[in-house]
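ok trying this again, last paste got cut off
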Amino acid sequence: MKRLLLSGFVLASSGAWAQGVSDLQPPVPEVPAGQAAPYYPGGPIPQPPAAAPRGAVTREGAEGDKKAAPTGRTILDDSFSNELEGDATSGGPVGAPPDIHVVKKGDTLWDISSFYFHDPHYWPRLWAFNPSITNPHWIYPGDQVRLAAAGKSPEIPIAAPPNEPQVKRLHRTDLPEGLYLRQTGFIEPAALRDAGRIIGSKEEKQMLATLDEAYVSFGKEKPLVVGERYTVFKELTDVKHPVTGVNFGHIVQIFGEIEVKSVTDGRVARVQIIDATEGMERGFRVGPLKRQFRLVDPKPDQSDIAGVVMATLHPLDMVAADQMVFLDKGKKDGVELGNRFLVVRRGDGYQPLLQRGKPQDDRRFPRETVGEVLIIDVKDTYATGFVMKSTKECRIGDRVEARKGF
């Protein structure tokens, strides 16, 4: 008897996994003939009337024998595709979209927004129109997605100008103009010693937030200036050279910015919290911390330089493209803004996975290039780099090489 019950449970489970539609939505209530089904929160979107909805997708023109004129569409790359009606150049329906879209296999809210409104970033609003969709990543074939708020008509997308190409491709390899650090940063040992410290507040609470005021003590050598803004941070980890063990600085967590309102003779400043990403506490450090970096144009290397990856900005053992790393070479070694370093490895790719922080440089093996780093900030003894390309994850301790003329 127990074996029979267990077999039935296994069959029922496998059947549930195999279904192709959602069973989270309740059944559609019966509605008298000729009346439209009302919409109710938490329930399914009503089926549109039998007649073709206003602005429905069609491959025919006004006369019934001509294709509709394309209106333009944005896609991410050459491999982008979906199961919506039309193709990459059709750009969706002409005029206003229909009230409801019936989900087909492979559809996502991103695709639906791109198809009907020519803007894939429209999907959060689309999700807001459909409270019955509890998770935007879980829509199933047969689900009905409302394209406007209840009782309203969908927005009419702006058609692309006739002189512009019908398909605009956004390549993922395009780099941003700059970087802004909001959560983590890097500070040198001397700058950390000179940083101020939050020692109190008139607020009767432990966690301070935006618009709260606080008191900051500072050293005589590095006074705070009235009207200036400073960063509030807390130490996370020390950055030490993976080979020599020399301390180069500290990775810090950023909690926001403060503005100095006044300064007393006792070297205590009254400050106001301008921006708080998280709650600030007494004991947090205050000081100037570079948070903006520009991605400069590459500049040919003037000499051959070899170094290693000391640390990563985020607490990761491995980093790929679009991440920031710190190299152990700086101005004293001839590094300049815009120089490029190649991340190279020599050795067996399997063994070093067990050796954290040790460079993979076995001279018996040929060099293999696994990444490229653009220098975006240079100090005397170290440089900050942006990983532009990578074929494999870069690791702390990896060897980097600048080659003259590259």
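PB: full thing came through this time. The first strand starts at residue 73 and ends at 75.
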